[in-house]
Amino acid sequence: MAERRRRRRNSARNNALPPLLQLLVCLRFFATGAFHKLIGDSFNVSECTVGRCRAVASAIVSVRGDFIQFPKDHKARETKQEFLKNAGFPNVLGCIDGTFVRIIGPSENEADFVNRKGFHSLNVRMVCGAKFKFTSVCATWPGSVHYSRVWRESALCRQFEQGEHNGFLLGDSGYPCRRYLMTPYLNPAIDAQQRFNASLCRTRVLVEQSFGIIKRRFACLQATLMTNPDQAATYVVACVVLHNLGIEKGDVMDKACDAADAYQADHYVHSLQRSRGKPHA
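RESULT FIELD:
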């Protein structure tokens, strides 16, 4: 891993916020998704000052390469062993899926951001490992774009197409089945196909649980991000970086074992067979 760099931003303001306070303001926004005015009141700073702390999010994103890494070489072997041990599925490098993150309607190309559920959003594609850590994220696509296209035009897809990774991903039926991307049978006709679907489902639910963990940890991803799409994408990636950092440091977290996630795991096979795997909210 590259040496982790410190980031310092120069300011010409007479009473600029100390870097630590800027970080705390940014983290409060990520954790609550509250309006800037409310966050400003809790720190005794102005609403505009809270808004300017978005530079902290950009600084966090600048080190994404240190924390969001798709496994290669020995890391890939470790990832496969983790999936085999924890989920019983061999030769897996990750589970892939998409999720919607709400934003306000942008002034340009507003209709492009209206998703199939009728609200404005980004369509965020992520890949997770066996321990809820995200190894790939793309947050730049508008909500109306189907996530199979988001995957098809990604750098990671090109890497798999070119044979750079020895292993495969697990996806739902919204993705095309490829030699490196395993998806469930839409209409399983025999017991073997049904058992395959059930096994894939039990493993692929990890990405659903990972979405649940990061959205509970960073409530701004559940609320509506009141900013433009580019800045919203920066917030999303910054939250992923912090999520992965928390896992690396052994931070205590909810491992998605509450009743809602238990229900999701129990019924996920049936939902896969009923639908074509559109992005999850």
